Amino acid sequence: MSLVPFDTSCVFIDGRWRSGDSGQTLALVNPSDGSELARIARGNAADIDAAVRAAQAALDGPGATEGERTGPWGRLTAAERGRILLKMSALALEQADELARLEALDVGKPLKQGRADAVALARYLEFYGGAADKVHGETIPFANGYTALTLREPHGVTAHIVPWNYPMQIIGRSVGAALAMGNACVLKPAEEACLTALAFARIAEAAGLPAGTLNVVPGLGEEAGAALSAHRDVRHISFTGSVPVGTLIQTAAAKNAIPVTLELGGKSPQIVFADADLDAALPFLVNAGIQNAGQTCSAASRILVERPVFDTVMARMAERYRALRMGPALDDLDIGPVISARQREIVQGYLDVVRDSGLRIAAQAPLPASLPASGYWVPPTLVADVAADHRIAQEEIFGPVQALIPFDGEPEALRIANGTPYGLVAGVWTRDGSRALRMARKLQCGQVFVNNYGAGGGIELPFGGVKHSGHGREKGFEALYGFSVLKTVAIRHD
Ligand code: NAD
User: Fold this and answer.
1) 152 and 211, same domain (yes or no)
2) What is the CATH number of the domain that holds 77?
3) One domain, residues 40 and 101
4) What's 419's domain CATH number?
5) By CB distance 3.0 to 4.6 Å, which of 129, 376, 393, 401 could disulfide with 86?
């Protein structure tokens, strides 16, 4: 099976590839050189409505009475659903190189990062395929003469609105978990990067996922995305993206009284104590900041360093920065371009703030003269001695810029780490086990990593934020609870 060539300008609804209702298309741009890569459909409210109806029909089937699930997807057992997900996983793995190439061209990430994302997609599908028939309800000790139990049921039609930075990983964790629980999905990928979402639909087709179970409608956020989040027959929304759009999504969901999972931004710290194993920490301190050109929700954009080792950590990070190799995604170096001209402008704006505030630049990786001038390049930049309340240390930049912040002792580290509007991930580097536990308990965020950062992606580890980083959990087994509804049944039998 080959994923290409396929007509990228189609929507995928009810198992069919067709033009969008508007007949209009949008350009996908290759960030490495600014050229047009493909055309995608400009999906609109009519496409979204057709997609939601197809999903409903995959659950309910024709002429079903209310509450019956006789559709080709709705009538499958959990084990049968799991087997299809496992087939999708195997196909994704088989196609990992092709998927990596599509993601590299579309997002601008080096091939090896694209391949890691494709392998993660396969692993999500494997994890959720295996979990599909292992989610149990409970029996509850209740009053005499009763048997009480709980059932885990799908929401129904679920909406998945995803960003451009990690399409494959986010589709895997969100759509994978929703399908495992028996929901039927409408996926709205980001207008900046759509190719692997369309390839994912091809994989679903090839694996025998019944028509209508997964529908993919590319398009603009304010058109297709807004129509999907407001649709009255959608029963759950999983949104990954920015805080302002997340607020709009939650408002739309509130009007239909449906639950949402919001995976939003971050300003995540890695905290380096003076007793840390610096050799172990160094690669994580830099990579977690510059991976995907810093366009990662859990990017370690703040590096908090205890004063006795501040100069050493800064010097060693600077050395790594100067060695970073930057180039077009297909050259597969350390770092590629940012996603768009707009994103480059935003990041450049923050670099102007660094300059205008007189902040010291500890290191800036050089931009090679050989880079295509029309690509969206930003020099990776390490900023020294940033005050904890400075804009650079407070706002999500979403580019390869890290702020080094000195601290003295645990209480100050905690105050700085917790002192932003966000709370997604934190890393703690120390050889003191008690301190690691104290910190882990007091950090206000959804994940804490001790003496590592990110646990290699951690498909099994529940993920999500607090404060402006959002709410609800994806990844791991926990996601399966979010993509299902608990029904309680109390049977009186005396
Ligand atoms: P974005 O919010 O602009 O777009 C995300 C998605 O929402 C896209 O599909 C877009 O088309 C859609 N959208 C835009 N306007 C909409 C509207 N009015 N109604 C419905 N949908 C709409 O975000 P982005 O710029 O693509 O992504 C960057 C942001 O995503 C960053 O803040 C980053 O931290 C966050 N992010 C979070 C996670 C996480 O897991 N927490 C992961 C990746 C990215």
Assistant:
1) yes
2) 3.40.605.10
3) yes
4) 3.40.309.10
5) 129
Residue 229 falls inside a structural domain: yes
Domain membership flag for residue 3: no
Do 195 and 310 belong together in one domain? no
One-letter-per-residue 3-state SS of the chain: CCCCCCCCCEEEECCEEEECCCCCEEEEECCCCCCEEEEEECCCHHHHHHHHHHHHHHHHCCCCCCCCCCCCCCCCCHHHHHHHHHHHHHHHHHCHHHHHHHHHHHHCCCHHHHHHHHHHHHHHHHHHHHHCCCCCCCEECCCCCEEEEEEEEECCEEEEECCCCCHHHHHHHHHHHHHHCCCEEEEECECCECHHHHHHHHHHHHHCCCCCCEEECCCCHHHHHHHHHHCCCCCEEEEECCHHHHHHHHHHHHHCCCCEEEECCCCCEEEECCCCCHHHHHHHHHHHHHHHHHCCCCCCCEEEEEHHHHHHHHHHHHHHHHCCCECCHHHCCCECCCCCHHHHHHHHHHHHHHHHCCCEEEEECCCCCCCCCCCCCCCCEEEECCCCCCHHHHCCCCCCEEEEEEECHHHHHHHHHCCCCCCCEEEEECCCHHHHHHHHHHCCCCEEEECCCCHHHCCCCCECCCHHHEECCECCCHHHHHCEEEEEEEEECC
The predicted-structure confidence for 123-166, as pLDDT tens digits, reads as follows 999 999 999 999 999 999 999 999 999 999 999 999 999 999 99
Among 264, 296, 318, residue at a domain's last position: 264
From 191, 297, 306, 396, active-site residue: 297
- Residue range of the domain that includes 350: 269-458
263 in active site: yes
- Average pLDDT value for residue range 27-54: 98
Ligand 1 cavity residues, CB under 6 Å: 161-166, 188, 190-191, 221-222, 225-226, 229, 240-242, 245, 248-249, 263-266, 297, 396, 398, 424
Residue bearing the CA closest to ligand 1, atom 30: 241
Residues 88 and 216 in one domain: yes
pLDDT tens, position by position, 321-353: 999 999 999 999 999 999 999 999 999 999 999
Q: Is residue 332 part of a domain?
A: yes
Catalytic residue among 103, 192, 263, 396: 263
The pLDDT value recorded for residue 62 is 81
- Number of separate domains in the chain: 2
